Amino acid sequence: MTTSSPMRRSGFRPLRRGLDAFGMTGGRPTERIARYRTVSDLFEKRWMEGAVPLVLALALCVYVIATTNVGPANAPLVLDEVSEYGLLAIGLTVVLVGGGIDLSVGSIVGFCGLGAMVADRVWLWPTALVVPAAIVAGAVLGAVNGYLIAILRMRPFITTLVTLIAFGGAASVLQNANSTQIGVTKPSLVWDFFNDGRILGIPTAWFLFAVVLIVVHLALTRSRWGWWVTATGSDRRSARRNGIPVTAVTFWTYVLSGALSGTAAILTSARLARTDPNVGNSWEIIALTAVVLGGVSIKGGRGSVLRAAVGVAVVTIIEQATVSDGAQGSYYTVILAAVLLVFTVLDLKWGKYRQRAVEKLKIDPARLSLGPLVDVTRPGTVWSLNRRLTDAPPVGLGKIRGAEDCAVDGEGNVYCGDQRGWVWRFRGLDDTEGEIFSRTGGFPCGHAWDAEGRLVVAVGGMGIYRIGADGEPELVANKVKRSPLSLIDDSGLRAIDDLDIAPDGSIYASDFSTRTNTADFLLELVEFRPNGRVIRVTPEGKTEVVVSNYVFPNGICTAHDGESILIASTGLCRVDRLWIAGPKKGQLEPVLENLPGYPDNINRSSDGNYWMPLCAMRTQMSDLLGRYPAVRRRMTREAAVDNWVVPQLNTSCAIKFSDRGEILAVLWDETMENYPMVTAVKERDGHLYLCGVSNNRIGKLELDPSEVGDLDPAAVPGTAGVREAAEALR
Questions:
Q1: Do 270 and 407 lie in a common domain?
Q2: How sure is the predictor about 300, in pLDDT bands with cuts at 50, 70 and 90?
Q3: Do 413 and 322 share a structural domain?
């Protein structure tokens, strides 16, 4: 699965994110896309919630057009009715997304339309006043529903069913009291404008519907109010606990629904030039069927007014097909009832099985074929077990909880993160208590000093931070530009785990996965997919991906010459060199391949070489499972996480290697008692500091003088004086 040939940066490809490292996996081009995971990502998209019902609704629409007399000649009438039904559907969608239901929209249309005619023809109000009055009347009736449901906490279905009857009865009373006068028409430019007028060449009704559709869509998907509505419909209790004014949100959804029903009443009255209590009768069934066809969930929390508008078009075409075939109106009602029943059941089943499919297909392992396994237990080799690390004196014993990495300043003070988000500082040898130097809010992983002596930390789940002398963390970078063809949002640096500084001040960091976070690293040791990448942060603060499609990059180190960086691939058991300067700039070439374990953070040594731990060891079982991705996928579905077969963790191994890839020394804690896990090895002032994400201490091992050189491992390579010292040593 590895290759020894260097990889070169090809010509400009706008869809590629930096140097493509997929070739190192040895996989076929067809394996670049994880099939199961792609389906899972598609199903997980929000727009897929109503996709299947919507596609079936469109198929039903095509079938109706193909088998009936509905054609282009019916388009104007269809669009007129879509404008009126659509306003009701928009309001009903907002109510449903907010967790309610409104069955009274049809009665509100009838009452407001009749009231507008009475105000215009009986009370002789100015027509310019009649229109807003009808909309306000609809909002007031919606407020009645909102008051009963949101404030008095009555059941939405029963409440709106009662108001459906009550508002319809009020319209009948109004009709009976003014039946003679409202039959007398009078000319009005306002009514003519709503019926035959145009705005920007578009019929008024169509234009108003389009404007309302766009505004409500943006409000529902891009505004705080829209997020509140969705959160309220998803889980009212959680929304209330998170400070969302659930009562107010619910109340105003009904007010909006009533106002849109009043607007629909104006359009209907203008088109028909008359009204009666039967106008709006059964419109609530039409609107409800339309929104369900559009994939709006009747359970609340999800839906789109755009999809609801498509559902309205389907329902209207079915209505026109029924009329054009000469069927009675009762047939249309039966058809709507049948369609509503079928698509309601479909919505419930699709929502249930879609989520199951997402969870079932989310983990999609790749085939992993490594080279021959080195037997580290065989005596007489460089890999032979020993106890060099066993008796290293501890620092911060019992205080630290899982230090992934550390940094040591010129005064011998030790800085290290732990799993609680803290950065500890231990002042010299005598400080056993330590102090909390900084609180990052994430999981501090990689540590490095920049040229100005400031501590730069890769904080898992947060991004890259720079910590000042006062312990205050300052954000450096937490996102990159999203990949143009990615189904998931890969812009966040959620799994940032190590970093180092280049001579020009750039920060290079490994982001081991665009799909998981730091706490879920075991998923990467099961999938072995090229989900990782290497990020560069320029001195100006801009971020870019320099290497993409990398398998579990888990260590970054600037080489002594400052012209390249070393990258540890935990997933592929190898170390690669990315040239960032010089004639080989843009090339990726191997340094170490087929290691017997899984490498972690890389750091420079004082003698011109490098220190690197093996955080886990390969076994015959892990290598065998790597060749059978289907078995690993079945394992993740059938077994608990604690029972997954993963590489052998807690092995306590640190190695020293050269620029040419020679293994110079291997240090072990054979007992695995004091330092069972080593994830970083830092050298400073003749001592080796041992960090481990599972340990409750940091080890401080004194090196033999023959192992110590004259270089400062903490200094930024390639800067003044450092490059000359490195060249002199070589």
A1: no
A2: confident
A3: no
**Angle 194-197-202 (CA atoms, 0-180°, nearest 5)?**
105
Phi-psi sector, 270: left (phi>0), alpha (psi -120 to 50), beta: alpha
Angle of helix 75-97 versus helix 246-272 axis, rounded to 10: 160
CA distance 289 to 419: 52
Distance, CA of 265 to CA of 64 (rounded, Å): 28
Which amino acid is residue 564, in one-letter code? Answer: S
Q: 335-364, pLDDT tens digit by residue? A: 777 877 887 787 778 877 888 888 888 899
CB distance 97 to 233 below 8 Å: yes
Q: Find out whether 474 and 441 touch, Cβ atoms under 8 Å.
A: no
Query: Residue 282 pLDDT > 90, yes or no?
Result: no
Q: How many separate domains does the chain show?
A: 2
Domain end residue (candidates: 344, 359, 374): 359
**Domain check: are 587 and 466 in the same one?**
yes
Position 642 scores a pLDDT of 84
Q: Are strands 507-511 and 532-537 parallel, antiparallel or unpaired?
A: antiparallel
* 71, burial (CB in 10 Å: exposed 0-12, middle 13-18, buried 19+): exposed
Orientation of helix 156-177 relative to helix 105-121, angle to 10°: 20
Cβ-based burial of 665 (10 A; exposed 0-12, middle 13-18, buried ≥19): middle
CA angle 9, 15, 21 (to 5 degrees): 40
In whole angstroms, give the CA distance from residue 533 to residue 514: 8
Establish if 121 belongs to a structural domain.
yes
- Does 458 have pLDDT greater than 70? yes
Q: Are residues 322 and 447 in the same domain?
A: no
| Segment 128-132 long-range contacts (CB within 8 Å, at least 24 positions apart) | 128/190, 130/190, 131/190, 131/194, 131/266
Q: What is the DSSP string of 5-64?
A: S-B---S--TT--SEE-GGGGT--GGGSS-HHHHHHHHHHSGGGTTHHHHHHHHHHHHHH
Same domain, 295 and 420: no
Instruction: Write out pLDDT tens, residues 515-525.
Output: 888 888 888 88
Q: What CA–CA distance (Å, rounded) separates 620 from 626? A: 10
Co-location of 292 and 146 in the same domain: yes
Residue 544, token pair as written in the block: 């870019």
421, part of any domain: yes
- In this structure, the answer to whether residues 161 and 238 fall within a common structural domain is yes
The dihedral built from the CA positions of residue 131, 136, 142 and 148, taken in this order, carries a sign that is: negative
For the domain that residue 102 is a member of, what is the CATH number? 1.10.3470
Structural domain boundaries, residue 669? 386-729
pTM, full prediction = 0.77
